[in-house]
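REQUEST ID: PR-0412
SUBMITTED BY: lab tech R.K.
PRIORITY: routine
TASK: structure prediction, single protein chain
INPUT:
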Amino acid sequence: MEIRKDLLELQLSELDMLMSMYPGGDELVLDNPAAPTDIRRFVDGPREAPPPRLEFTLNVEVDEPKATVAMWCSFPPLYPEVLPKIHLRSKELSRQQQKDINQSLHSFLDTSDLGELCTMPVVQWIQENAGKHITLSLAELQSTNTQTAKEENKLTSLSRFWIYSHHIYRQELLRKIPALAKELDLTGFCLPGKPGIICVEGQTKYCEEYWHKLRYPNWKHISCKHREDVECKDQNEEAKFRLFNVFEELAFEAHGDYGLRNDYHMDLGRFLEYLKEHKCDYMFSIFFGVEGKESRK
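STATUS: complete
OUTPUT:
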């Protein structure tokens, strides 16, 4: 993968600008606090290993109606010459309105000029457009107020499924895995290659539906190695349970330059690093029966 130091410089400059505009500790939160330092070392020095991506959540305040929208950003190595990944969440948004606002945001991003920094235009877009989606969400809640009051007294079941496959190569599966997660509002990741690892988290009923549909009709060499189940009272507890902001496909360098085919082995050292970043490295020994070692930088 091509990595250009001049583009990484732009990413660091943009992050510095955002941190100066949002100095509060809970306003801008880095997924990996060490990432800016690692990127700076890569840009300034002889470090050969590619640095981690800049990924962070920016909590954007909306005035009318009063609300906070969490804007999760991930900068690909070639950003801003390619678009960043951005996903919006808010406890004030219904599931449908959260889906709608993200679709509208992606349409807005598609009109952006490549090569231009775009986080601040997105912040402005959120401040101008999130209000109508929040208002619609409130209307939906009011129209079902009686049912909502009943449901509030119930606990919501959440789960995290850790799925292991001998391998994941087929393009059909590589399309189905993330599409089904998006359809069911599940977060997590897919690590293709050999072995293949999938993690999905969200409401228990949707995790179970995902597991059923994923195996059907004939995926045989697959098992759910581990599952975690909790009960939560509200969206704040659900947010704390989730370890991942979105569902993403991981692409760590393989042993050898073979592409995604039957002899493609993922770099499990980098996979362990990823699990540690998301506070779930305990799964490495569950999957592989050994304590892992991180890849050398």
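NOTES: The CA atoms of residues 78 and 125 lie 23 Å apart.
REVIEWED BY: pending
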